[in-house]
Amino acid sequence: MDLFSDESDNEMYEAGVFDSATATISGECTVYSRINYESELSDSEFTFRFRLNKSSVNELLVKILPNLRVKSSRNYGVSPLHQLLLTLRFYALGTMLVSVADFFGVSKATASRIVSDVSRAIAGLYPEYVKVLENTQHAFHAIAGFPKVLGAIDCTHIPIQSPSSNIGEEYRNRKGIFSMNVQGVCNADLLFMNVVARWPGSAHDATIFNNSIIKSEYKHEGVIVADAFPLRTDVLKPYNTRGEFNDKQKIFNYRLSRARRVVENTFGILVSKFRIYEKAIPLSVQKVEQLVKTTCALHNWLRETTVDYVQQRSLETEDWVTGSIVPGEWREVPSLAISDLPPTNARNHSENARRVRDLYAEKFVTSCTVSWQWNMIRRGYNNTTATNNTE
Asked: Where does the DDE Tnp4 domain lie (predicted)?
């Protein structure tokens, strides 16, 4: 039996490990004796099923317990531990809620209430773990040789079910898919520093940025590296690869791509850990907003507290011999989960913004060179982050 496949559930049911809940009749009540998954599952199987190891689950339970509405299993209710595990299982699988309910021996209505309550409790940790961090510039300079970088920004489209007819079309993106456009800003350590999860799929990335608090918090203190966002004095993006494209511009694009790769890896890890993002999320728009904040807070907490939460093979890296990009394991997640849309043809960049980018490009070939940039240029590095539609 392959312990690391969802199909193994059926075999484990047959073996009696996942006998959901044993029912006995006491008077007029049906009493369920639920399985202790911590004792029944090995450490590796437990982590695979719930995405957190046993010690992390218990630590998280202590953090959220004060905010749970049901704090005990009296009157044969669902214990706080089983509530948390049910919710984590829902995040990990992204399956129908009724399947998760059957797994724990509860009704679909009870499972829905539990997921809502636990998600709300975990989302309460968001301000503590998702926040603008200081001293980010050194780490970005270490991985990309890019000075004064405060963060890497990107937007990703989270697929959702069709909302109500009154607002449905607002959530249809340019690919014709119902989605929520989520903006994230990350540091070089793969931690979310800001997440905006309230805009419909039809909203442009620039609109989200211009209305986000991160715009004012980062102004005049450094730069954010981006791709499809409009070029600004505080938001740098690649040069257009069409037409004249010299070595100076290639080096700028390459070093910028190294800096902004962290946000792609961060979103990729989030989606690969919580497979609920693989397909259209069967929740209301408001609950999807809560889900994004919940999983981002979980991601940051696990990144800071769990040594093996992110493994090297999960990350997108470079082959230093060929200069090609080595895809991270998160690329195996269906592309619908991370549906980046092509950038628009906006070309109204200010002269000051172009001047700032040109200044960086000039420094990268004069006073701020690094040996590896020339190696990649000689090997014919293909900057996959540069777009053909922007200046």
From this structure: 153-300
